[in-house]
Amino acid sequence: MSTELKTVARDRTVSRLKELGLSTHEALTYVTLLTRSNVTASALCKETAIPDSKIYYALEGLSKKGMLLVQRGNPNIYSAAPPREAFATLKDQLTERFNERIREADVLVDVLTPIYESAEKSGDLEVAYMIKGQKNIINRMKALVETARKEICIFISYSAVLKELKQSLVEAREKRGVKVNVAVTREVFENEDFSGLGELRLLCCSCDPTVDARAPTLGMLICDMKTLVTLSNWFDETAMLTQDQSLIRVCRDYYDNPVCCTSVQWKRKK
């Protein structure tokens, strides 16, 4: 192999060793020792052009990485550790450093999460966005019900909405132990089957159009106190989804207000 090709091959090897964490001087020293074993530090300085003040740092670094054999004397004699042995040690050290980085990342997650959760999330989710179309509204409501883990609170003014969501609500309650709170208008109460659902209440204020003819019909779904879907009018095929906590708390308090929602017992019709 010509001198030029040897130089190219050496430079490529040095570059690849640096990618594995060796310094330039360490990589150059190791490559040189592969072809010239049992040499002194002075000889290495001449061979590599590494300054005398730097060569011992390179030799010490290689020794710590398990890539160097040292014969103690005056002067010391140096040889490269066999590549298979040297890289086995290097791989162990790389793995340990990687695992340490992973552990540091886990610690940072624990430290930064409370900061993130306590900060205002103005850009996380729009205050509200619209859902168009009855099918899209029902699909979004079903998806929220099916992912709920603690509590569902739902206000229903339309029998069609109850029919679409009932099975998902029953499964959330019976299979996952989710608390299901249901409030319905008198018309829905008198005409639908509520078996298998949770606590039932009757809308008894202006949110029920049968009580106040001027009131808009209403539907709401709150899942785990995180997400709210409001349905202003089923036939307009428009709903609003939000994660605004202030609005969610107001709507949830509405369910607990006995002036607005009265506990009621439903009995299966014979």
Describe the 3D structure.
With 270 residues, the protein is of the alpha+beta class. It is 50% helix and 18% strand. It contains nine helices and ten strands. It has an eight-stranded mixed sheet with strand order 3-9-8-7-4-5-6-10, with helices on both faces. It has a two-stranded antiparallel ribbon with strand order 1-2. It is rod-shaped and about 100 Å long. The termini are far apart.
How many β-strands, per DSSP?
A: 10
CATH class of the largest domain: Alpha Beta
> What gross morphology would you assign?
rod-shaped
Distance between the termini: 99 Å
Q: Treating each run of at least 4 consecutive H or I residues as one helix, how many helices?
A: 9
Structural class: alpha+beta
CATH level-two architecture of the largest domain: 2-Layer Sandwich
**CATH level 4 superfamily of the largest domain:** Endonuclease Chain A
The strand order across the widest sheet is 3-9-8-7-4-5-6-10
Low-pLDDT windows of residues: 122-126, 206-217
Strand content: 15-25%
Largest sheet: 8 strands, mixed
Specify the helix fraction band. Answer: 40-55%
- CATH topology of the largest domain, by name, is Endonuclease, Chain A
